[in-house]
């Protein structure tokens, strides 16, 4: 029915990288806030928040490392990691099992949070022993429950869905045709697959045998499967995958029942007093509820609302889509094809959203976040901390380019035998090094743009700008966005000559260079006009002139950069249009980009007076000549007053 890839491989990689980057940043910041902020009436629950954030970071990282895909057929499904297709069967299977382990780990932690809230709020008599030694008892319960449930899931998955000759034969044609993946390659890549049933036809011998490949043409795609013959012409259920799925359902629904029970009791506990019936008041849980203070009850309601959303969102984005993948072949025998990949991609959303829910619903953490953002969005002190950091990052990105060049050179010398390549698609290792090289180069361009933007912001309100706190959060955000954008452009540009993604990457890289070039000239123009026309205090005039001097010193650097980047433009489009062999475009690109790094920094240093004087002063410490000076007090005094007079003029 939908037996196509649906999601392009490039989009899957970009989506995984984007969600992972956001998830790592958001969860790391939540860990920082929770560990540094003491919110009243939360207590040890903060350790559960920290554990949840750590698992979110882990599952997001595994998503990017694995880049999972799933293909659904009418008789089952197959799950594999795109980055492990070249590895052995054991490594590919272990990677898929590790993803499965972390995915179910989030479900167990969610259930554990409900159990913890239930015990703390309701204090049921049959669980009162936990509070006698809470740290020891909670740790023991967590370890035992996690070992049992997660261990059972991983063991069941590894035994029921591991690669076999039957699954490899059944899924090999469709993966070869739709995804160009060869399951019978020399390494025999690992995966997880389930075949629930096989359609049977009448056979005189009454034995089961495999039919030849059967192809069904539809308007959308081609569906390919293998069938097995039986005397009755009915479905024959394969016990291994069916039994493994039943065990998984028991584990999932058993955990869901625990969550549902705790949810109902917590809702009863947090209801207002006027809605409590006489029967509920006689309950021990209802009696205990009146001992909770009003402030503590408010915090518990905030945490509970966050927990409800932490349950609803993964249910919609993770648990329901994967339930469709598991159960659809059992209920509706139609081929959904690449929709399974969409289900796997949707699982990447919750680790990114989860920390935002905590900040949204817990007032204490939200206040800390707003205060941090307010301080972080402030600019800098009069010493131009932001400017120094941006220039430092610009220089570091240039050094990273030279490191990538050394890496590429060593690769040519010690690994590759054939230096000149006619093919536009480089070898995998060479292509990977070039991708990192191009990423560093685009990061350098992003910092050139950042320098211009920072100078533009500094001349808008100079006094307020230079008297506020350093913008560390803004710098960190800009740096992360620059790295992500640079990697995205490099990935698109080197995805393959002639492809649409390559053209998009080339257009984005050219646009980035032009925007960085234009922004600096706009800053020079507006800084000069504001210095000449507006009335300012002496301090403001000094700050505007400082911004103007740096922007003006960048003009020769940008001119030199654009002259060399013109060669890079030519190399990009020669590569895209197949005009020259691959290695010719590579030589032009590497030569121009390396010259760009060294010459632009030299031009900036040459035309910025203060930096040039500091450099001259630095070198003069090592080359200063020792000259005997006569001790003439009158001459020295006269020179001093003459210098002061000239300074005041």
UniProtKB/TrEMBL annotation:
<dbReference type="Pfam" id="PF10326">
    <property type="entry name" value="7TM_GPCR_Str"/>
</dbReference>
<dbReference type="InterPro" id="IPR019428">
    <property type="entry name" value="7TM_GPCR_serpentine_rcpt_Str"/>
</dbReference>
<dbReference type="Pfam" id="PF10319">
    <property type="entry name" value="7TM_GPCR_Srj"/>
</dbReference>
<dbReference type="InterPro" id="IPR019423">
    <property type="entry name" value="7TM_GPCR_serpentine_rcpt_Srj"/>
</dbReference>
<protein>
    <submittedName>
        <fullName>G protein-coupled receptor</fullName>
    </submittedName>
</protein>
């Amino acid at each position: 029915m939908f037996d196509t890839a649906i999601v392009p491989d490039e989009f899957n990689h970009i989506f995984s990288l984007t969600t992972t980057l956001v998830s790592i940043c958001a969860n790391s910041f939540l860990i920082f806030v929770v560990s540094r902020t003491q919110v009243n009436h939360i207590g040890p629950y903060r350790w559960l928040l920290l554990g949840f954030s750590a698992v979110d970071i882990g599952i997001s990282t595994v998503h990017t490392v694995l880049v999972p895909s799933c293909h659904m057929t009418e008789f089952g499904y197959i799950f594999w990691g795109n980055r492990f297709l070249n590895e052995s069967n054991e490594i590919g299977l272990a990677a898929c099992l590790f993803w499965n382990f972390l995915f179910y780990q989030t479900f167990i932690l969610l259930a554990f949070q409900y159990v913890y809230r239930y015990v703390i709020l309701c204090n049921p008599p049959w669980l009162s022993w936990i509070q006698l030694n809470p740290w020891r008892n909670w740790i023991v319960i967590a370890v035992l429950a996690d070992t049992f449930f997660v261990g059972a899931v991983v063991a069941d998955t590894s035994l029921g869905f591991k690669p076999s000759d039957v699954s490899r034969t059944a899924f090999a044609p469709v993966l070869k045709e739709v995804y160009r993946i060869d399951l019978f390659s020399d390494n025999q890549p690992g995966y997880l697959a389930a075949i629930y049933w096989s359609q049977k036809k009448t056979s005189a011998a009454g034995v089961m045998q495999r039919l030849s490949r059967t192809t069904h043409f539809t308007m959308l795609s081609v569906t390919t499967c293998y069938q097995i013959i039986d005397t009755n012409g009915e479905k024959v259920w394969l016990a291994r995958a069916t039994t493994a799925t039943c065990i998984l359902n028991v584990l999932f629904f058993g955990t869901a029942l625990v969550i549902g029970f705790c949810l109902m009791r917590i809702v009863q506990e947090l209801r207002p007093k006027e809605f409590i019936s006489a029967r509920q008041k006689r309950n021990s849980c209802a009696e205990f509820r009146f001992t909770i203070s009003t402030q503590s009850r408010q915090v518990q309601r905030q945490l509970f609302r966050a927990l409800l959303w932490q349950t609803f969102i993964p249910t919609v984005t993770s648990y329901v889509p994967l339930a469709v993948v598991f159960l659809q072949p059992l209920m509706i025998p139609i081929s959904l094809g690449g929709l399974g990949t969409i289900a796997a991609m949707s699982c990447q959303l919750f680790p990114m959203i989860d920390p935002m829910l905590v900040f949204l619903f817990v007032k204490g953490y939200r206040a800390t976040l707003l205060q941090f953002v307010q301080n972080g969005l402030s600019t800098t002190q009069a010493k131009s901390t932001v400017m120094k950091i941006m220039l430092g990052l610009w220089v570091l990105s240039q050094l990273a380019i030279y490191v990538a060049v050394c890496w590429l050179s060593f690769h040519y010398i010690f690994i590759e035998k054939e230096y000149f390549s006619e093919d536009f698609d480089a070898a995998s290792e060479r292509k990977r090094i070039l991708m990192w090289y191009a990423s560093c180069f685009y990061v350098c361009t992003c910092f050139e743009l950042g320098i211009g933007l920072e100078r533009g912001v500094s001349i808008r309100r100079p006094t307020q700008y230079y008297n506020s706190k350093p913008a560390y959060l803004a710098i960190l955000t800009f740096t992360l966005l620059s790295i992500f954008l640079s990697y995205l452009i490099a990935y698109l540009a080197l995805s393959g000559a002639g492809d649409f993604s390559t053209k998009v990457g080339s257009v984005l890289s050219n646009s980035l260079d032009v925007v960085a070039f234009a922004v600096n000239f706009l800053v020079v123009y507006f800084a000069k006009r504001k210095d000449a026309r507006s009335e300012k205090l002496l301090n403001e005039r000094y700050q505007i002139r400082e911004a103007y001097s740096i922007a003006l010193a960048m003009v020769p650097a940008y001119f030199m950069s654009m002259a060399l980047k013109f060669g890079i433009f030519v190399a990009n489009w020669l590569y895209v249009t197949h005009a020259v062999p691959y290695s010719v475009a590579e030589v032009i690109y590497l030569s121009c980009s390396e010259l760009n790094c060294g010459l632009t920094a030299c031009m900036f240093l040459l035309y910025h007076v203060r930096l040039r004087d500091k450099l001259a002063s630095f070198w003069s410490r090592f080359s200063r000549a020792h000259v005997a000076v006569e001790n003439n007090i009158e001459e020295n005094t006269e020179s001093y007053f003459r210098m002061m007079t000239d300074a005041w003029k």
